[in-house]
From TrEMBL:
Naturally occurring in which organism (per UniProt): Brachionus calyciflorus
Entry superkingdom: Eukaryota
Domain OTU: 91-255
Protein's recorded name: OTU domain-containing protein
Chain segments annotated as coiled-coil in the UniProt record: none
Length: 845
């Protein structure tokens, strides 16, 4: 019975105990004193130690976030996360020492913010495995998790129980490697351990990779939330290599502090009220970190793409004008072929999977197709909305055409390396538009996109990271159709008439990838000059400058980022509009942010559809509020007077030829100032200070201690801001205006501001004198820091050594932590005179 009580005490979760060196030393000694000849002896040792160990209960899990000042990002793990399929963009892979204790060090870091408590975690795991051996073995059998045994580095001839006992002995030895059996520390600390195993390929259900990405849930009850542990490698980031294997554990920490459990509960309640089911946010959608475009509706008409192409021709007005010799003529294709490729089979594939299928079909297809056929010939066949025009040899999938039709093909000999305006014009008027946007494109590809269907900001927000613009240019063309031919003429933008028929504006913008210099995105937008709604097409090409084509673009962190280390992906225009819409909604910003994450994960959007952080919602809420409320004109003073009427925060504004003052505070600030500064028993000293010059302005503000609050775990009171004055001059009249405004408002609200017990100012005579004139019943003191600086200045005028100066300063102000015997802490005039005389006697100048 005593052993049960000790074990119960040992398993309790408490907030009263703290992590300290004695606790660490105790667990180090306990694990070293274990007898390990056989299992029974080891179990008896544990039982005999439980009385000592039970004095140390489990300290409750803290909310640990990534601290860029103290924590290092594991670069190899970050690279593995980028290459893998997980959308853990809000988590940082933290570097962990690889000394055989990496698993327990990772748990220590995730639970308590430091790695040095790994021995205690190892010991608690060992206790749990020994005392609950039969329960864990039975659990493993019921759950049919044979992969525990398969992945344990043991002799094949051992049975399940022998494997488990062997892992117990491994756990009892310091610096011994951890295995899957040791993740039962989830039971030791009442937590869920979410495992993350990197993989490029999408794993199958019930596969080994799926189990390695599973969650080990607490069998009793999870009362401390999840901890995320990442399978990594200490020196190998080549995840695409078949020989890659994990040999290291690290933990994943969030970039920001958030109560996920509370938000999820609130989210579910709100969604249920709206009769919308929402899955648990801890179950991350299984999709790639650079996911494919989302599933689409079936294509409307695959058999007759002539109608689609002809619709683009219909936007052109037929003219009988005679063009000059410098006009460029393109022959339009008269016949349209049907593709033999089964688009229905490819509808749900990602771009990469479809390209792999095409490459496989090239090797098995007959080589009878004419080599002179243009790679863009398949543009005349039905275009699957999710499929790019692969430059390799998509023409192999076309039905046979006679030689004449091939030579007249409108897409003959198009080279993406030299792809330019005329190529784009030719494709824009003869090519089907896609029905879903390309997002994860890493091969030579071409797309025709209707900007009346998709927003341009959504088109340019792909999952390939950041780009750098270059080669921007705009040209004006007159484009007409005559007997099935395209007639194109460049015209001068200065002579454009709005009624001029068939005038099109062509804008070229090229982008170079920040991640890889050889990867380029070319965009050419073609729109009708006086009516973009009738025709607005963008031709988008992804091009490798050299023949080297990498399967994975390694994304980089944003160049301006100093804290976050996750890769940068541009947000789409739709997602940004959604953030702005959610930011002004009433309710919890955390809840709104979590809802956006849930919806994006549920619908398998690209990374550009996710909000970057909750700070975006705060930012746009403040910006929209600012732009909505504030007037703006060329007269700054008129704007000031108009905007002041929209809020009572600005109490008074005064300006003349040489001066300007604006006094600001709300009623709660003023009430708290008197409430805490004028309390009879325990009052806060009011501090008045003028900050540094902000441009041509000064800011003078009052601060006080909020005596009704404490910093968590301490007896210290937080500092709150009181009334503020913005001004351009630091004279007596300016500060007197500030003090009189406070006195005037106190009379209006019938609160006696002179109840304030004590005010501290610096040595500014104007500030000190102005407030002392108004607050006649208040005690005034000078700031010690300013007094110390003034005395130092006086001592510098004398020939004193630094040690002598420091001795005088200590006699007057004391030292940090002990000011009880200093001159400034004298309790009455007699003590002050006595200490002053001793100071004079001990100091010879």
């Amino acid at each position: 019975m005593d052993d049960e009580n000790h074990y119960y005490q040992f398993k309790m979760v408490t907030d009263r105990q703290k992590l300290h060196i004695n606790r660490t030393n105790t667990f180090n000694n306990l694990i070293k004193q274990l007898k390990q000849n056989n299992f029974d002896e080891l179990k008896n040792s544990i039982n005999s130690q439980l009385k000592t160990a039970s004095a140390f209960s489990i300290i409750r899990k803290r909310q640990i976030i990534f601290n860029p000042k103290n924590d290092l990002v594991d670069k190899i793990s970050r690279s593995l996360l980028i290459k893998s399929k997980f959308e853990l963009f809000d988590l940082a892979p933290v570097s962990i020492v690889g000394d055989g204790n990496c698993f327990f060090r990772s748990l220590s870091k995730a639970l308590y913010g430091e790695e040095k408590y790994d021995v205690e975690i190892r010991y608690r795991t060992l206790v749990e495995m020994i005392l609950r051996k039969d329960e864990f073995l039975e659990y493993a059998k019921q759950q049919k998790i044979d992969w525990f045994y398969n992945l344990s580095p043991s002799i094949d001839k051992l049975n399940e129980e022998e494997v488990f006992i062997e892992q117990i002995f491994n756990c009892s030895k310091l610096d011994s490697w951890s295995t899957l059996w040791h993740i039962f520390s989830a039971q030791a600390f009442s937590i869920d351990i979410c495992l993350v195993y990197p993989t490029i390929k999408k794993y199958q259900i019930n596969s080994m990779i799926e189990y390695l990405n599973g969650t080990i849930r607490c069998l009793d009850r999870s009362i401390q939330g999840p901890v995320r542990i990442f399978w990594s490698n200490s020196n190998d980031e080549k995840l695409e290599c078949p020989a890659w294997k994990a040999n290291h554990f690290i933990c994943l920490l969030p970039y920001r502090k958030i109560n996920y459990d509370e938000i999820i509960i609130k989210n579910k309640i709100e969604m249920e009220n709206e009769k919308r089911l929402l899955s648990d946010s801890s179950q991350v959608t299984k999709s790639q970190s650079r996911p494919s475009i989302k599933k689409i509706k079936p294509y409307i008409n695959f058999n007759n793409n002539y109608d689609q192409t002809n619709s683009n021709f219909n936007t052109l007005e037929f003219e009988n004008d005679v063009f000059d010799m410098d006009k460029i003529k393109f022959e339009a294709e008269d016949s349209f072929q049907k593709s033999s490729l089964s688009w229905n089979e490819n509808r749900d594939m990602s771009l990469i999977e479809q390209d792999e299928k095409l490459e496989h079909s090239e090797s098995t297809e007959s080589a009878s197709t004419d080599e002179e056929l243009s790679p863009l010939s398949n543009s005349l066949s039905p275009i699957h909305p999710n499929k790019s025009l692969s430059i390799e040899s998509v023409s192999d999938h076309l039905d046979c055409q006679d030689e004449t039709e091939k030579k007249n093909s409108n897409f003959k000999n198009v080279d993406l390396q030299t792809f330019h305006f005329f190529d784009a014009i030719r494709i824009a008027f003869t090519e089907n538009s896609v029905q879903s946007l390309p997002k994860s494109v890493d091969k030579n590809s071409l797309f025709c996109i209707d900007l009346n269907v998709f927003k341009e900001g959504d088109v340019l927000a792909d999952d390939n990271g950041a780009y750098k613009e270059y080669g921007n240019k705009t040209k004006i063309y007159k484009i007409a159709s005559n007997n099935g031919s395209l007639l194109v003429e460049k015209i001068d933008s200065k002579i454009i008439d709005n009624d001029f028929l068939n005038v099109f504006k062509c804008t070229k913008v090229f982008y170079k990838s920040i991640s890889i210099d050889n990867f380029i995105r070319k965009s050419i937008k073609i729109s009708k000059f006086n009516d973009t709604k009738s025709f607005n097409i963008m031709i988008l090409a992804y091009v490798w400058k050299k023949k080297i084509c990498l399967n994975n673009l390694e994304l980089k962190v944003h160049g301006n980022s100093t804290i976050n280390s996750h890769p940068y992906v541009r947000m789409s225009k739709t997602a940004l509009d959604k953030v702005k819409e959610e930011s002004i909604k009433i309710g919890s910003a955390s809840l709104n942010y979590n809802t956006m994450i849930e919806c994006a994960s549920k619908d398998e959007f690209s990374l550009g559809e996710y909000p970057r952080s909750i700070s975006q919602l705060y930012k746009y809420k403040s910006l929209q509020k600012k732009y909505k409320n504030n007037a703006s004109s060329k007269d700054e003073y008129a704007d000031l007077l108009i905007n002041r009427q929209k809020s009572d925060f600005v109490r008074s504004v005064n300006f003349d030829r040489y001066g300007f003052t604006a006094i600001m505070f709300d009623q709660q600030q003023f009430v708290d100032l008197i409430r805490f500064g004028g309390s009879e028993k325990n009052f806060s000293i009011i501090n008045i200070d003028t900050t540094f010059k902000l441009g041509r302005y000064y800011v003078t503000y009052l601060t006080f201690r909020n005596l009704s609050l404490n910093y968590n775990g301490t007896d210290c009171y937080p500092t709150f801001m009181g009334p503020v004055m913005v001004h351009v001059k630091r004279d007596f009249d300016t500060y007197l205006r500030f003090a009189l405004e406070l006195k005037h408002y106190s009379a209006c609200v019938k609160l006696d501001i002179e109840k304030i017990k004590c005010i501290i100012t610096d040595d500014d005579e104007a500030l000190h004198g102005a407030f002392k004139t108004v607050f006649t019943r208040t005690n005034f003191m000078l700031c010690c820091n300013h007094m110390r600086k003034d005395i130092y200045k006086i001592l510098n005028d004398y020939n004193l050594k630094d040690e002598e100066k420091e001795e005088i300063i200590q006699l007057i102000f004391g030292i940090n932590g002990d000011r009880s015997k200093s001159l400034i802490t004298s309790e009455d005039s007699e003590i002050y005179a006595d200490r002053a005389n001793k100071l004079l006697e001990s100091t010879v100048i």
